[in-house]
Fold this sequence. Notes:
By secondary structure, this protein is mainly alpha-helical.
Amino acid sequence: MAKKPVLTYTVIAINSLLFIAMMVYDRQLSYPTLVNFGAKVNFRIADYKFWHLVMPMFLHGSVQHLLFNNLALYYFAPLIEFQLGRLRFAVSYIAIGIIAAIGSFIFVPNVSLGASGVIYGFMAYHLYLYLLNKQLYLRIFGNSILQLIAVNLALTFLVPNIDIAGHLFGFIGGFIVYSLIIKQLPNRLFKPLAIVLLIAIGGGFFYRMLYYPKTEDYFMAKGAYYYQMEDWQELQKVENDYQKFLETTQ
Length: 250
């Protein structure tokens, strides 16, 4: 068991340092900057740049975004780091973040970034603890955290410009990861259900990888990036590929 939430503080520091680096590089946080730093950008993932599934969980688009998510990590993460230990905490953090990014890749065309998916996965851990022993959980935590989780899930659907898929897949990712790495589960069906969900998400990812490069959105997003980067040679390649794409669809 970890004595101090060292990894929690480390992640908060990484989030903050990367945001400072982004602001120093480009105070406007333009589209090319988000792409270059590794935000979830669908055309890059479709081009097999899979680090865009890892980096988004450490990047943030504004001071408010950074502060809110760092505060949420400070609130939720230490308990999980204490109970899982540092190695399993690190594995769960990265795995949940990747599952959240995959969900966003499958369902959301826009650029996405932030630790929110992981935070929703941490919320799922509290639901796991509640289902494991309801009376003990309520004696320790009361209803406040469960109410906070319910409010955040509701806000996911009510607040505009939120990556709904990223949040929901982060929550689902938490359920999957905890069901696979924790021995004591509230229900013996959790593990097989987690495996089924993981296979389904993998299948959705494979399908998206296969067919997204054959969509107009793929070429438009890729072209916009190289246009704003003023990389005319790469832009010309995209235009040529787009013309070939149009010819095959006629």
